[in-house]
């Protein structure tokens, strides 16, 4: 009979061991799922990383545009410091300034017609309708 008792105790220990092993496997599975979820949702996830990469690309493009604008401004500044030709050109184009003894002609195109057309007095509709 003593052998029977030893066998009985070993069976109960085996049952208790498999039960704790089931709990351990369940806890490990839950932790694995939580880790996988954290990769796809929340701070530091793949979508957040991809969004930050897109923002970095947009900022780099914006920086490149600003660098080009800075280059243009530096070139204009150097032209302005080197002589009067750049200042005169800017005054003419932006401020409409003209030199002495110069005549300024401005051509205004009608939006309805593509080319300017002079109206002769004989073609004037107001005079021909009254006659």
TrEMBL record:
CC terms in the record's Gene Ontology section: cell division site; cell septum; plasma membrane
Presence of the UniProt keyword Cell membrane in the record: yes
Cytoplasmic compartment spans: 1-23
Transmembrane annotation, as ranges: 20-41
Compartment(s): Cell inner membrane
Keyword Magnesium among UniProt keywords: no
Lipid bilayer topology: Single-pass type II membrane protein
GO process annotations (BP): FtsZ-dependent cytokinesis
Keywords assigned by UniProt, alphabetized: Cell cycle, Cell division, Cell inner membrane, Cell membrane, Coiled coil, Membrane, Transmembrane, Transmembrane helix
Coiled coil location: 49-90
Pfam families attached to this UniProt entry: DivIC
Periplasmic side stretches: 42-131
InterPro entries: Cell_div_FtsB (IPR023081), FtsL/DivIC (IPR007060)
Recorded family membership: Belongs to the FtsB family.
Protein role: Essential cell division protein. May link together the upstream cell division proteins, which are predominantly cytoplasmic, with the downstream cell division proteins, which are predominantly periplasmic.
Quaternary structure note: Part of a complex composed of FtsB, FtsL and FtsQ.
UniProt cross-references to HAMAP family, sorted A to Z: FtsB (MF_00599)
Stated name of the protein: Cell division protein FtsB
Provenance organism: Leucothrix pacifica
Gene: ftsB
